Automatic annotation (TrEMBL):
<feature type="domain" description="ABC3 transporter permease C-terminal">
    <location>
        <begin position="172"/>
        <end position="291"/>
    </location>
</feature>
<comment type="function">
    <text>Part of the ABC transporter FtsEX involved in asymmetric cellular division facilitating the initiation of sporulation.</text>
</comment>
<dbReference type="InterPro" id="IPR040690">
    <property type="entry name" value="FtsX_ECD"/>
</dbReference>
<keyword id="KW-0132">Cell division</keyword>
<dbReference type="GO" id="GO:0005886">
    <property type="term" value="C:plasma membrane"/>
</dbReference>
<keyword id="KW-1133">Transmembrane helix</keyword>
<keyword id="KW-0472">Membrane</keyword>
<feature type="transmembrane region" description="Helical">
    <location>
        <begin position="165"/>
        <end position="186"/>
    </location>
</feature>
<feature type="domain" description="FtsX extracellular">
    <location>
        <begin position="54"/>
        <end position="149"/>
    </location>
</feature>
<protein>
    <recommendedName>
        <fullName>Cell division protein FtsX</fullName>
    </recommendedName>
</protein>
<keyword id="KW-1003">Cell membrane</keyword>
<dbReference type="Pfam" id="PF18075">
    <property type="entry name" value="FtsX_ECD"/>
</dbReference>
<dbReference type="InterPro" id="IPR003838">
    <property type="entry name" value="ABC3_permease_C"/>
</dbReference>
<keyword id="KW-0812">Transmembrane</keyword>
<keyword id="KW-0131">Cell cycle</keyword>
<feature type="transmembrane region" description="Helical">
    <location>
        <begin position="266"/>
        <end position="286"/>
    </location>
</feature>
<feature type="transmembrane region" description="Helical">
    <location>
        <begin position="20"/>
        <end position="40"/>
    </location>
</feature>
Length: 292
């Protein structure tokens, strides 16, 4: 084993210029794959955040009694697909309105006690799966004690359509780039083997076994794939960390994933592609010259 590793080192140094070219191709290609992967993950996270803001507002009749409100709350919580139910009293509803439209609104209500009594008790219902909101709203409308249900039906369907398009576009882009990466790296490996075909033929003529010939190429592909994956990983990890810090300081409303949430899967992805294609591609490409 040590002999094969030493031979691998000699081969890499002997063909150092081509080694550098191969390593650069792998690193640049995987850098692009990793960058698009981070983009896709954040697009998916942003879509989930936006969809998660879709809630159902359920209104009870004005002046509903406490026991009626309790029964309605229990019925809402018992529905399948409900993640949470929050009760909003008329007084709390008035406070929220005054925060949105200004304290003048509260002063207007304060001048006439009966005006405050016109605000209905309500609930804010969140669905376990945001895309189930229309169906859940329809089920809520049939519950006793429900006066009205609102969830922005006119724009929710459009929202889900656009987030679905955004997700699909991002994943298609990642798939295309990953396919391109596999194609480029495989061709680079094949070119490497082709340029050294005479060396392989010479080893066969002196009686070297197939395993003896394969192992140095396998270790070369393994090493180039590993290094070619680690270089873009560290660059992307540090670059993404700096990006998240900058966005948090200047655009805190943009919900980027934390570096810790994506680094593990990013490393697995880059190493999987780099090592898999580097080592596996070497073994597959050399078979042609071994006549196996």
């Amino acid at each position: 084993m040590f002999r094969h590793l030493r031979e691998t080192g000699k081969n890499l140094w002997r063909h150092r210029f081509h080694t550098l070219a191969t390593l650069s191709t792998v690193a640049v290609t995987l850098f692009l794959v990793g960058a698009v992967y981070l983009l896709v993950q954040n697009v998916d996270n942003l879509s989930r955040e936006v969809e998660g803001e879709v809630v159902i507002r359920v209104f009870a009749p004005v002046g509903a009694k406490a026991e009626e409100i309790d029964r309605l709350e229990a019925a809402l919580k018992a529905l399948p697909g409900v993640a949470s139910v929050a009760y909003i009293s008329p007084q709390e509803g008035l406070e929220r309105l005054s925060e949105r439209y200004g304290p003048e609104l509260k002063d207007i209500f304060a001048q006439d006690i009966r005006a405050e009594e016109t605000l209905p008790p309500s609930f804010v219902v969140r669905a376990s799966e945001p895309r189930d909101v229309p169906e859940l709203a329809a089920a809520i409308e049939g519950l006793p004690g429900v006066d009205a249900v609102r969830y922005g039906a006119e724009w929710v369907d459009k929202l889900f359509l656009w987030t679905s398009i955004l997700r699909s576009t991002a994943f298609v882009l990642l798939a295309l780039l990953a396919f391109t990466a596999v194609y480029l790296i495989m061709n680079t490996v094949r070119l490497t083997i082709y340029m050294r075909r005479e060396e392989v033929e010479l080893m066969r003529l002196v009686g070297a076994t197939g395993l003896y010939i394969r192992l140095p190429f396998f270790f070369e592909g393994l090493l180039l794939g590993t290094v070619g994956a680690l270089i873009p990983f560290f660059l992307l990890a540090e670059g993404y960390r700096a990006l998240v810090r900058y966005v948090q300081e200047n655009f805190a409303f943009i919900p980027l994933l934390t570096p810790e949430a994506v680094q593990g899967t990013l490393l697995v992805l880059l190493l999987g592609v780099g090592v898999g294609i580097g080592a596996g591609g070497s073994l597959l490409s050399i078979r042609r010259y071994l006549h196996v």
